[in-house]
Fold this protein.
Amino acid sequence: MAGQIRMTPAELRDRAKKYGHSAREIDQILNNLKNLQEQLRGEWEGQAFARFDDQFNQLKPKVVQFSDLLDAIQNQLEKQRLLSKITTENYRKILALTNKSILKKCRRAVQLSAWLFLKKEITQHAQN
């Protein structure tokens, strides 16, 4: 079953930007924590810090992965926005062409009806 998007391309763009902005915020937080970790390294020695440092180093790749995932979501939303925009524009063009075609057919039908009506009137008038 096909999904439905209940947002305009502009709304999709805004949401995509929020994901990208969030990824940048996470990157900045991680950089701040790395700097703090370096500062602690100079001020705290021993096994307790070594364990703490190991935990921090194990966590870093997960935070980077999360930031990368947010970037990937941003890219997917942006691609969907472009597809939605193209689809909407194409739909409008098709609708405009269809409406023109329908109008032409209606004009022809009206012209034909008028011609048939006049022909009938002329025939009846000629018989009287």
